[in-house]
Structure formats: structure tokens, C-alpha cells
Amino acid sequence: MTTTTTLPPTTTLPPTTTTIPPTTTVVTTTTIAPTTTTVAPTTTITTTSVKPTPSTDAPPLAPQQIAQIADPEVQQAVIDIIDNPEDITVDEARSIFTAIDTLEPDTITVIVDALSQASDDVKQEFQQAVNIFDGAFDNYVPTGSTIDVGARRTITATSVIISGVPTVTARRKT
Fold first, then answer.
1. What is the mean pLDDT, run by run of 10 residues, along the chain of 174 residues?
2. Domain locations in the chain as residue ranges
3. pTM value?
4. CA 119 → CA 58, 94, 113, distances in Å?
């Protein structure tokens, strides 16, 4: 027996081609030259309005310390300024200021703490009568100030030191 097989005819397909349009990619690079900016140092001063309070460093005066004050008028003025610094008059205060060099350091410290609470007139009289910056009155808060003399001296010294430091400037490359 003979078998015959018939195969279907073969077909050849033409080759297919696809054309992709060309694309262009552009990359832009910008280089910025480095710059250096020099900023001058600045000082910022912040002020606040706070009523100064007496220092807690000064112990209260003992009666025997007040008794050591030779002039009875000065004794009474010291008692008055310690008890009611807001109520002391310029005349009472003046008697203390003229005798300030004869008083003990503890007595001066207590008086100075009380003076910080006194009226502006009394403070101005005190500032005219004595050199408040000589070191004995570091706790005193002058008229128109919110910090005591000791802190003011520190700020002034710091400002002088800082102002003496040269400013370094960087050069800009071109």
C-alpha cells in the first residue's frame, strides 16, 4: 500500500521593516562660578523695660552696724532708705552721699541695693555725688538703665574687645 501525503503549498511573506524617526536629545549644562559674600559683624542690643530689683547678695544691716554711723542724721537716712527706698527725699539721700566714704562696705552694699528702688531724682543726685563706676557700687542700677553697673562694665569691656577684632574678608574669584 502506498500512501501519498499532500502538503499545502508554502508561501513566503515579504520581509517587514519598520522605520523609527530619529530623535535628538539635548543636554544643557550651566556652570555658575562660586561667589563669596562677606558680611560685617553686627551687634544686636535688646532692651527690655524691667524695674530693677535689689541684689540678694547684701545681708540686712544689723542694729550695731547702723549704730557705728557717727552722724545721727546719716543714721536715720540709712534706716529710711533701707526701709522705704521709694519714699526717701533728695535731701535725706544727700546726707548719705556726702558720708558714703565713711561707711562700712556692708552698709554701702545695702544702701546701693536700696537705691536701685529709689526715685529717679534720688538716683540722679547719687550719680552726681559719687563715681558709680569705681567698683564699690557694682549692684547699683543707674537712672534709665535696667542692668547694674557691674554688668554694664562687663558689656562695655566685651564691646571694646570685639570691636578691636579685625574683620576678615574673602576675595571673590572672577
1. 70 70 73 68 57 50 72 82 84 84 83 84 88 81 83 82 71 71
2. 69-163
3. 0.52
4. 20, 13, 13
